[in-house]
Amino acid sequence: MRLRSASETRSRLDGLVHFDTQQSAAQDGLDLTAASMFAFTAPGRLDFGGDEEQPAERRRLDPEKHDPEDDYGWWDLEAGTYAVRFNEAVELASGQVALVVPHERLLQAGAHHPVSGLRAPREASEAIEAVLSVGRAGLHIKENARLSTLLLFDGTG
Fold this sequence. Notes:
Blueprint: E1 2-3, H1 6-10, E2 13-14, H2 19-22, E3 30-42, E4 57-61, E5 74-77, E6 80-86, E7 89-90, E8 96-102, H3 104-108, E9 111-112, E10 116-119, E11 129-134, E12 139-142, E13 146-154
């Protein structure tokens, strides 16, 4: 498998906020930015065959501006588990795989999400989401904050 550069990955993404800022320091990934946060409100259901599966219920959390002059608001999250939807979406062609990994800044802020893999085929209209675990101290996240990095790989055939 070959890891694509940030410039190559850019052509597969929709919804980038600011390429120059979102380009990772190693220049081999692009940072994903927070668009929406959701709190889980009721359990989901899983079974062996899938006939009784049901996603967990959730409600959208509204960001709040700390100052009326601010352009963007903040999510003030207590300890717990949330879903984050990113601004960016990725289109994957046959043979491509993408990994979504937590950004070091997220880990240093006391939160994390599992590494997740995205496989082709995948349309750019499909939102990328992650299940975010916030530590006991809580976490303040500003709209469009960079939380994760997307790494795009091409198969070797």
